[in-house]
Every structure is written in C-alpha cells, then in structure tokens.
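Lecture 7 notes: from sequence to structure.
We start with the chain below.
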Amino acid sequence: MVNLENIKIYQTNGINYDVTTEDIIVKLLDWDQKFGITISNVSYDTLTVYFHNLPNNVRIMAEEIYEFCPDIIDQGYGCMDEILTMGQKIDERLKPLLQGVEMNSPDFGLQILENVLKVKKKVCLWWD
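Predicted structure tokens for the same chain:
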C-alpha cells in the first residue's frame, strides 16, 4: 500500500481547482489499487507519482490525469509548442517524449503526457 503520510503532513491540495487533500488521497489509493504506485517529492501543492504498471489504454489514463490535474498540460506539456517555435534546441532527453506527437494537433499536450507515462512511468502533479 502506498505511503500517504507526507500527503497528510503537507495537506497537499489543488484548492484552486477544488481538489482537496482527501480528493488526492482517494485518487492515489485508486491508482495504487489499479496500478501500484510510489509517491515522492511531496509538498503542499505538488507530488510525483511512479506507476509500477500501466493500463493497456494509456490515453485514457492521460485524460484522467489531465482532468484531475489540469496544470500538467495547461501550464506544462501543452506549452511545448512555444518552446519549439522559439527555435530552442530540444534536449536529447525530450526527444522520446515527442516521438509521434502531432504538434499541430489541439491535443498535442495530451499526446506528450501519454508518451511520458509510457517512457518514464511517472508523472509530476501540481496545482498552481
């Protein structure tokens, strides 16, 4: 069973999205039951979730994560097009995460999140 002690200590929340500490605990327990998880880097508005297993349909999982934590795309992966159009050199570590992503697609951020899950089997959640 996943250790939720730090979530309770920090009262981790996404209150700007009406996500309470209890909501986070419920979601993590659900993910732990379905996939097995480990958490780290816990603070009052952020945490990292490592998935031991992934579902067959990672896209559905990515959509669930986005619904639970919109900042992951709205302020994260969904901004990758800006970096690329500014002509910045792509870090070699990012290339696997961009593989097969259609940057002109309105859901490219979700495609990147899906790749992150497949490649790294982890996700950093934050509520800003």
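Points to note: The two ends are 28 Å apart (CA to CA). The chain has seven helices and three strands.
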